[in-house]
Design a protein that fits this description.
The complex is a heterodimer of chains A (725) and B (155). Chain A is built from 19 helices and 26 strands. In chain A, a hairpin with a 2-residue loop joins strand 18 (443-452) and strand 19 (455-465). The longest helix of chain A is centred in the first third of the chain and has 28 residues, at 128-155. The radius of gyration of chain A is 27 Å and the shape is globular. The termini of chain A are far apart. Mean pLDDT of chain A is 93; it is low at 1-35. With 155 residues, chain B is an alpha+beta fold. Chain B folds into two domains: 2-76, Beta-grasp domain (Ubiquitin-like (UB roll), Roll); 85-154, DNA polymerase, domain 1 (Orthogonal Bundle). Chain B has five helices and five strands; from the N terminus they run ββαβββαααα. Chain B has helices at 22-29, 85-92, 102-115, 121-127, 137-154, and strands spanning 2-7, 10-15, 48-51, 54-57, 70-72. Chain B has a five-stranded mixed sheet, sandwiched between helices. In chain B, helix 2 (85-92) crosses helix 5 (137-154). The mean pLDDT of chain B is 97. Chains A and B meet through helix 6 and helix 18 of A and helix 2, helix 3, helix 4 and helix 5 of B.
């Protein structure tokens, strides 16, 4: 399909809607005085907590989304990347149903940025399916209509007489494949979007369709950034500052430049690049470079812990109801607990890297990235060329988890390619990957509450955290002064028990001397760990069943009802029993709401020789319409075990400006032996449209385990990773 | 130095520094990209291959040791189009998420099943010690048991 007519259409789910809603916040701010700044910040926090981010990209032209081949194969070019979350499969299901094709006819590929099909935002935030649900159905339905209009002409029949099924158009005993129809068209008109089909009539949406990338992934197909290659390609390895607060002063590259198989060593203000004919040669030559580093000061773990303290840094009230402050200040029966979470690494298996080819003022980059637009702009800026002259060709990601929202490797590869005029492939070794991670920031939480007649009269959550969203190219700079509190750091930090008459959540922003950023589910894991452990402590103090205690204090609005729905579902499916079970195990419970998706876990845990063992997890999740129940299960299972890993084992520490460990093993993670042998996922679908799935089930796992451990041991573990005394 | 070995049934001779990890010979010289680089220190298992039927972490296996040996990578695990029982089980259980570590796990599992055709959960815990950050372990365990079943039905 080519020579399409560009067409501007108004659509319900355009970017404009988001801008309009955002500008309400700005308008309020401009029109009010300083005194109400707190109100505005709470309003913006509430907006950020409940907003459903729309898709930000071209949704008007089916030609950049689909390509119909003569053999009736249809390629769906996805502007969202596939990093394991199953988005390609969900998109294929949605498109196949509206296109009226067999899903086997569809092949999903990443859209290169040169195609113009660019997501202006990112693949992240568990928004890919939810934000494309409406636009992709409209695009697919429009393409089907385009093919029908042309088929009617070619078959000489009225469009109303056409029947469409499995990629074939037929009327009066004659039929044409989509491919045959498309072959004869040289110019397309984009019609008005036809009415979408009834969701109930869909064949693929709602069913556990196997992943579309299954065969490639069990056969080891070369689909990842690391697998990309070009003829005449050279390899490169990079030295950059990997110590906290440390700068490269000068370096002696002479020895490395003379080594066999080394092509060139380049020195840039922010990195040294060693270019060689093989990765091994580049790595070896790197070791021969002597760098002089200068350090502002020495940093130790204790310095970081001293910074991350509620009461230090700048506070913003992100949620407030009633007057918890005066109740908690003027009562002697206040219950208070503190919780902590450590620095966490992404530790995704495929290291960050890029293959870049810069030639004749244009750049082509093959890589695993979650931010195609940002990667493109950064490379363009570094090379001093226009963004449109940088083609980002996304590959499958060997894990994302937020790590690939920051992609300086692309710039480095591009600079080196320009320097030698050949394609350059460079990537981190594992030590560099750990040292240059953009870590999950450590947190400190103070929870306070007062009980009255077995219910919570007042409650406060204070969280101190390093930055998550602020400082990221994804978040406009204006957000920092406007919001004050980092929306990623406090994610999951609001109190979901809205029947409590008085409550507050306060976020304390701390600047850390190393890069912290997005880690799957952002602050959700740590904030839920703190709040839901504390809820358990309160229930025990109130001598109540912890689940009923929660249910009694959740509001009856839609948000509250959906949360209660998953809590009850998890409770009933697990056969919840409070206290130690006859086999010595105990159950633990926790719940959270993330990106409007509520999720509850009941875990079954034992403790032996101070080792915690999770035997079974029952998870109830309500993401709304389930596009692919099997992939919702897969994401829940993955979130549960990844969350367990973070809650039970993982931590990075600072010593003499160095973050360590820098290798798997010493960076302890959950492995096969640690994974629960039973995971039971209950899916509720309380809304008619798909919501977030890829992160919400991470929230409750840490608290659920800690709550179970308390029942067995009497030890209240208030710091992750959970370690028994 | 010249190193000769058989890889996926094909005899090959490569010219390389004998201390180069076999992983890079497989990926960059022989252009078989299914074997993955994860850590370079034999700590994650993404690069697992078979050398004379044994699971080996190729990032920490010098190419010179492959001389005269029989090497199998994920590309050579199955006979032609037919999937190996482990791959078949992986498909049935829809195991992969991002997929990057999966060839290593599949190769480790195939080697385990050669020695222990019907592994217990304990055998699996002790022998399958690769790392999957998507944490697909729950489905992998089911797939390993299923693969054992398929393999025993086939034989």
């Amino acid at each position: 399909m080519s020579n399409s007519e560009p067409k501007k259409k108004k659509r319900k789910f355009s970017r404009r809607k988001f801008l309009v809603r955002s500008s309400i916040g700005l308008g309020v701010l401009i029109g009010t005085g300083y005194l109400s700044r707190h109100l505005i910040r709470r309003y913006l926090a509430d907006f950020a907590n409940t907003a459903e981010p729309p898709y930000m990209g071209n949704i008007d032209d089916p030609n950049i989304w689909f390509e119909v081949l003569e053999d009736n194969q249809i390629i769906l070019y996805s502007s969202k990347v596939e990093m394991g979350q199953g988005t390609f499969t969900g998109l294929a299901q949605i498109a196949a149903d509206e296109l009226e094709v067999d899903i086997q006819q569809l092949k999903v590929k990443h859209a290169p940025s040169a195609s113009g099909n660019i997501d202006q935002f990112s693949t992240g935030g568990s928004t890919s399916i939810s934000s494309l649900w409406q636009p992709l159905r409209e695009l697919a339905a429009t393409l089907r209509e385009m093919i029908k209009q042309e088929a009617a002409k070619q078959l000489g029949v009225d469009i109303a007489a056409l029947k469409v099924s499995k990629g074939m158009v037929s009327a009066n005993g004659k039929s044409l494949s989509y491919g045959e129809v498309v072959k004869k068209v040289s110019e397309w008109k984009i019609p008005k979007t036809p009415p979408l089909k009834d969701i109930k009539s869909y064949q693929y949406v709602g069913n556990p369709v196997p992943r579309v990338d299954l065969l490639d992934k069990v056969k080891g197909a070369p689909i990842f950034g690391m697998d990309a290659s070009m003829p005449d390609m050279l390899y490169a390895s990079v030295i950059r500052s990997s110590l906290i607060d440390t700068k490269m002063e000068n370096a002696d590259i002479s020895k490395a430049a003379e080594m066999p198989d080394v092509v060139k060593v380049i020195q840039e203000p922010d990195f040294i690049g060693v270019i060689a004919t093989s990765m091994t040669a580049a790595e070896n030559a790197k070791k021969a470079i002597k760098v002089n580093w200068s350090t502002n000061r020495t940093w130790q773990q204790q310095d970081i812990e001293d910074k991350i303290q509620v009461g230090k840094g700048s506070p913003v009230t992100i949620q407030k109801q009633g007057n918890s402050k005066s109740i908690l200040e003027n009562s002697e029966e206040v219950i208070s607990s503190e919780y902590k979470s450590p620095i966490g690494a992404h530790a995704q298996l495929e290291p960050n890297g890029a293959l870049a080819h810069v030639k004749d003022g244009k750049a082509t980059i093959y890589m695993s990235t979650q931010v195609i637009k940002i990667t493109q702009d950064e490379v363009a800026e570094r090379l001093g060329i226009k963004s449109k002259d940088v083609n980002i060709v996304p590959t499958f990601l060997g894990g994302g988890f937020g790590r690939r929202l920051h992609t300086p490797n692309a710039m480095q590869a591009a600079v080196m390619s320009k320097a030698v005029g050949k394609p350059i492939k460079c990537f981190f070794n594992r030590k560099e990957e750990f040292q240059n991670d953009t870590f999950r920031p450590p947190t400190h939480h103070v929870l306070k509450a007062k009980l009255k007649d077995g219910k919570i009269e007042a409650m406060e959550h204070n969280v101190s955290s390093g930055d998550v969203a602020f400082g990221s190219a994804l978040v406009p700079r204006i957000a920092e002064p406007l919001m004050g509190a980092d929306l990623g750091a406090w994610r999951g930090g609001m109190i979901n028990y809205s029947k409590i008459p008085n409550y507050r959540a306060i976020s304390w922003r701390v600047k850390l001397p190393f890069a912290t950023s997005w880690w799957r589910s952002l602050g959700l894991l740590a904030n839920t760990f703190a709040i839901e452990s504390f809820m358990d402590e309160l229930a025990i103090t109130a001598k109540q069943d912890p689940i009923q205690f929660r249910l009694d204090q959740i509001g009856d609005d839609e948000r509250g009802s959906r949360l209660k729905g998953v809590i009850i579902a998890a409770r009933d499916k697990a056969g919840w029993k409070d206290g130690v079970l006859p086999n010595g195990r105990a159950m633990g419970f926790a719940a959270s709401v993330d990106a409007n998706t509520p999720c509850a876990h009941v875990v079954e845990v034992s403790v032996e020789n101070k080792k915690i063992k999770v035997h079974k997890v029952t998870c109830a999740i309500d993401p709304g319409l389930a596009i692919n129940p099997d992939q919702i299960r897969a994401q829940s299972e993955g979130c549960i075990i990844m969350g367990m890993s973070a809650a039970m084992f993982e931590k990075m520490t600072v010593k003499d400006n160095k973050l360590s460990p820098t290798i798997y093993g010493p960076y302890k993670m959950a492995m096969m032996k640690d994974a629960p042998k039973e995971i039971d996922v209950v899916i509720l679908e309380s809304t008619g449209k798909p919501g977030a799935v890829g992160e919400p089930p991470l929230g409750p796992i840490g608290a659920a385990i800690a709550n179970a451990v308390f029942r067995i041991t009497g030890q209240r573990l208030r710091a992750m990773p959970l370690e028994l005394a | 130095m010249k190193i000769s070995f058989t890889i996926n049934g094909q005899p090959k001779t490569v010219e390389t520094d004998g201390n180069t990890p076999l992983l890079w010979v497989i990926r960059d010289v022989l252009d078989l990209k299914g074997t993955k680089f994860g850590c370079g220190k034999a700590a994650c298992g993404a690069c697992t291959i078979h050398v004379d039927g044994n699971a080996v972490r190729s990032c920490s296996y010098a190419a010179k040791f492959a001389e005269g040996k029989n090497v199998t990578t994920i590309e050579g695990l199955s006979d032609g189009e037919q999937l190996h029982p482990v791959q078949q089980a992986w498909v049935e259980e829809i195991v992969p998420q991002c997929g990057y570590c999966q060839p290593g796990f599949i190769m480790a599992t195939a080697a385990l099943l050669n020695k222990t055709p019907n592994p217990s959960d304990d055998d699996i815990d002790k022998n399958i010690v690769n790392i999957c950050r998507c944490a697909t372990y729950y489905r992998m365990r089911k797939a390993i048991h299923r693969a054992a079943e398929i393999q025993s039905n086939n034989s």
